[in-house]
Design brief:
By secondary structure, the chain is of the alpha/beta class. The protein folds into two domains: 148 residues, ATPase, nucleotide binding domain (Nucleotidyltransferase, domain 5, 2-Layer Sandwich), CATH 3.30.420; 141 residues, ATPase, nucleotide binding domain (Nucleotidyltransferase, domain 5, 2-Layer Sandwich). Strands 3-2-1-4-5 form a five-stranded mixed beta sheet, sandwiched between helices. Strands 8-7-6-9-10 form a five-stranded mixed beta sheet, with helices on both faces. A hairpin with a 3-residue loop joins strand 2 and strand 3. It is globular. The two termini are 27 Å apart. The structure holds 5'-O-[(R)-(carboxyoxy)(hydroxy)phosphoryl]adenosine and zinc ion (ZN). 5'-O-[(R)-(carboxyoxy)(hydroxy)phosphoryl]adenosine binds next to helix 6 and helix 7.
C-alpha cells in the first residue's frame, strides 16, 4: 500500500487535519484538529452513567461500551468538524497507558480506519498527550520546563529540556492524586467522579481546619504518596481501627472542612515539589496536565507561588484537562511533522507503557 509522503501529506499546518482517538479509560473520544492546535471538533462520550453505581470504573463494562459507540463517536467528530474521511491526513491514537481492553478498542479501530482509508497512523502515549494539551492551549511555552502529570492514574514530575523530551524526576509510590480525590469523595458520600465534587464542597470549607499529612514521600524526593492521606481522612471521619464509614453521620459543614483540608494537603505538595524542581533545573515554565489540572484551587496555588519564583505556570484549557482525543490528535500532528517516520502501524495497545516519547 502506498502511504502518502510528507510532501503529499504535510502541505501546511493551515490545512492538515488529524483524526485523534482516545479510549484509554472510561471516555470514548474522537477529535479533528487542524495543524498542531486548532480544535475543529472534540467529542467526549463519558461512560459516567455506566460506572456511577459502582463508584469507579469497571474495566469490562468500559471496554464493551467503547466497542459499542466508537464508530458513532468518530463519525460525530468528522461531522462536527464538517469534514469527511478524505480530508483526514493522519490518524493518531493513544495506545497506553490505560486499561488493556479499553485501549485495544481504540487501537484496533484506529488501525482499521487508517488501513481502510490509506492514511498514515501514529500511536502515542496518553500521558505525553496530557502534557501536550497544555502546550496546545497556550500561545508559546518556554523551555526548559517541568512537566507535572496529575490525573486519575498518575502523579509524576518530568524535566523537559525542550518540547518532546522528558526525564522522569519522580512519581507516586501508591495512589495517584486524582484517585485519592475519588476515594475521599466516596468516604464523604460525595458523587463520583470525586475530583469536581471535592472541589465544590471545599469552596464552602476551611482548608486550615484539619491538619492532614501532606501527600508526599521524603521531603527532598520528587516522589509522591497518597495512601497515608486517604487513611488519615478515613480515621478522621470514623476514628481509628474502623474501616467502614457512614458518610450520613457527618454534618455538611464537617464534610466541607474535610474536603477543603484534604484538597490543600493533596495539592500543595504538588505545587511545592514542582516549584522546587523548577528551581533545581532552572526551568522557565511548569506545564500541568491531566484531569486534576482542571482544579481551580491547584491553579490558584500555582498562580500565587509561581511568579514569586520567576516561573510561569501553564494549564490546559478546561475542555482539554480530562481525557479527550483533541490532545491526542494535536500531539500526533506535532510528532508526524517533526519526523514522518514516527508514523507507522507497528505498535500495540500497551497498558503499562513507560517511556513518554
Ligand atoms: O486525566 P483524567 O481524565 O484520566 C486519567 O488519565 O486518569 O483524570 C481523571 C481524574 C479523576 O480522578 C478525577 O476525579 C480528577 O481527574 N479530576 C479532578 C477534577 N476534575 C477531574 N480532580 C480534582 N479537581 C477537579 N476539578
Ligand atoms: Zn488521562
Amino acid at each position: 500500500m502506498h502511504l502518502p509522503t510528507p510532501e503529499e501529506t504535510l502541505p501546511s499546518e493551515n490545512n492538515f487535519l488529524t483524526l485523534g482517538i482516545e479510549t484509554s479509560c472510561d471516555e470514548t473520544s474522537a477529535a479533528v484538529v487542524r495543524g498542531p492546535k486548532k480544535v475543529l471538533s472534540n467529542i467526549v462520550a463519558s461512560q459516567f452513567d455506566l460506572h456511577v453505581k459502582y463508584g469507579g470504573v469497571v474495566p469490562e463494562l468500559a471496554c464493551r461500551r467503547h466497542l459499542e459507540i466508537i464508530e458513532k463517536v468518530v463519525q460525530s467528530a468528522l461531522d462536527e468538524a464538517g469534514v469527511t474521511d478524505n480530508d483526514i491526513g493522519l490518524v493518531s491514537v493513544a495506545h497506553g497507558p490505560g486499561l488493556i481492553g479499553a485501549l485495544l478498542i481504540g487501537v484496533m479501530f484506529a488501525k482499521a480506519y487508517a488501513a481502510a482509508s490509506g492514511k498514515p497512523i501514529i500511536g502515542l502515549n496518553h500521558l505525553e498527550a496530557h502534557l501536550y494539551s497544555t502546550v496546545m492551549s497556550n500561545e508559546a511555552v518556554e523551555f526548559p520546563a517541568i512537566g507535572a502529570i496529575v490525573s486519575g492514574g498518575h502523579t509524576s514530575l518530568y524535566y523537559m529540556p525542550e518540547e518532546g523530551k522528558y526525564r522522569l524526576l519522580g512519581s507516586t509510590v501508591d495512589d495517584a492524586v486524582g484517585e485519592s480525590f475519588d476515594k475521599v469523595a466516596s468516604l464523604l458520600g460525595l458523587p463520583y467522579p470525586g475530583g469536581p465534587s471535592i472541589e465544590r464542597a471545599a469552596l464552602r470549607g476551611d482548608p486550615n481546619s484539619i491538619k492532614f499529612p501532606l501527600g508526599m514521600t521524603k521531603k527532598r524526593s520528587y516522589n509522591f504518596s497518597y495512601a497515608g492521606l486517604k487513611t488519615a481522612v478515613l480515621y478522621h471521619i470514623k476514628g481509628h481501627g474502623k474501616t467502614k464509614v457512614d458518610s450520613n453521620i457527618i454534618s455538611e459543614d464537617e464534610k466541607n472542612d474535610v474536603a477543603a483540608s484534604f484538597q490543600y494537603a493533596a495539592l500543595s505538595v504538588i505545587v511545592n515539589k514542582a516549584l522546587r524542581a523548577a528551581e533545581e533545573f532552572k526551568a522557565k515554565s511548569i506545564l500541568v496536565g491531566g484531569g486534576v489540572s482542571r482544579n481551580n484551587y491547584l491553579r490558584d496555588l500555582f498562580d500565587k507561588k509561581g511568579p514569586k519564583k520567576g516561573v510561569r505556570v501553564y494549564f490546559p484549557r478546561p475542555d482539554l484537562c480530562t481525557d479527550n482525543a483533541a490532545m491526542v490528535a494535536g500531539l500526533g500532528y506535532v510528532k508526524y511533522a517533526r519526523d514522518p517516520s514516527n508514523a507507522g502501524p507497528d505498535f500495540e495497545a500497551d497498558p503499562n507503557i513507560r517511556s513518554l516519547n
